[in-house]
Amino acid sequence: MSDIPVGPKRVDASKRTWLIASGCAGAVGGVATAIPFVSTFQPSEKAKAAGAPVEVDIGGLQVGEKITVEWRGKPVWILKRSPAQIAELPKLDPQLADPLSKRNPSEFTPKYAQNENRSIKPEVLVVVGICTHLGCSPTDKLQAGPQPSLPDDWQGGFLCPCHGSTFDLAGRVFKNKPAPDNLPVPPHKYLSDTRLLIGEDGNANA
Question: Measuring CA to CA, which residue among 74, 102, 67, 99 is closest to residue 11?
Fold first, then answer.
């Protein structure tokens, strides 16, 4: 298997504050839709600042819905995809820079998410919502179809408003975009069918 070329120098998102990311998205005015953080099961502010895992109840998450939680000062997106959206993911491989998430797996994609769904459960995507270009926060473009700044055959995903990088519904970056890597998948595991732990994986059993 040939090596995937290494893109431009990556930004260490852990060294950037999310305030900078949010400010970049806000600078374009009105593009992003504010999504409240989920507070269920979250630890104290002091514990979060220390990097404590965050427990999330996803029992009420509906197909097509995305919630955002904070972990280590970063936004973590949890999206429930439809069967049709999951079926479309393999068809996008030729358009993607790293379709199988082989690039920098220790940094961006743990072993249990090195698949075309980039997830433990096919229907649930868990990614850090920070663009790998300059640390901005992409906006939701979950609906398929032609839209401003997107191709006519758009199948849903995310658009970074700062420099136009686009990601599919698995957080995989499209070719010829400023972002060099896919959106990071944080360590996570299922405590039950409806409870996620962000920040710890263990065996990452579903």
Answer: 74
Task: Assess contact for 42 and 23: CB atoms under 8 A.
Answer: no
Whether 199 contacts 72, CB under 8 Å: yes
Tell me if the pTM is above 0.85.
no
Element (H or E) spanning 125, and its range?
A: strand 124-128
Q: What does residue 145 show for φ and ψ, rounded to 5 degrees?
A: 115, 165
Tell me the pairing of strands 54-57 and 195-198.
Answer: antiparallel
- Give the C-alpha separation, 159 to 157, whole Å: 7
Place of tokens 């906006």: 139
Side-chain half-sphere CA neighbours of 22 within 13 A: 10
pLDDT tens, position by position, 26-77: 433 333 333 444 444 455 555 555 578 999 999 999 999 999 999 999 999 9
Closest C-alpha to 157, from 185, 138, 178: 138
Contact 192, 198 (CB under 8 A): no
* Longest pairwise C-alpha distance within the chain: 46
